[in-house]
Amino acid sequence: MYLTPQHILLAGATGLTGEHLLDRLLNEPTVARVLAPSRRALAEHAHLENPVGELLELLPKLSGPVDTAFCCLGSTIKQAGSQDAFRAVDHDLVLAFAQRARELGARHLIVISALGANPGSSVFYNRVKGEMEEALKTQGWAQLTLVRPSLLLGPRAEWRIGERLAAPVMRWLPGKYRGIEATVLARALWRLALEEQDGVRIVESNQLRRLGR
């Protein structure tokens, strides 16, 4: 459990989970500063530093110190426009963000991956997520937490018809396959940040639901 003020780096603050996590971080008395680069400006807050622009261009300009980094980046192949564009965000950009976080002093990296992430998967989405996880493990993190939520539930700014159709069913599936509310995931992410456990930790969706209650 951290007792000293924390300096947080957050990527994906305008996304479904990221916006809930940002709200929680800004209301935590132990958080002194949240550095949250984003494409569009966020609401001002005394503890928020919000560089605006493309993340890849902003990364070299970010300054520390950073204690913990959260990566809530994520897209879909449809949203990205192609498999190559999807990989550029969900693999390449995640790795670039993580590397910069390490350079700024972060000891703990928490990354939203996906249920079924596996570098050997025949499903492109799951394979990219698995390759991203494996690549992060080679960066030498003192503490790396990979979370694998099932379908995220909650209102999104953009229309995702597949998720809208699947959501009612996903709410009733057993174990790790059941959908998880973004607010619950955000609470779980913060609780994981408070736990000191060296090495790599993989947290499946059913564990995330318990942590986020």
Automatic annotation (TrEMBL):
Signal peptide: none annotated. Pfam families: NAD_binding_10. Residues 12-152 form the NAD(P)-binding domain. It comes from the Bacteria. InterPro entries: NAD(P)-bd_dom (IPR016040), NAD(P)-bd_dom_sf (IPR036291). This is Nucleoside-diphosphate sugar epimerase.
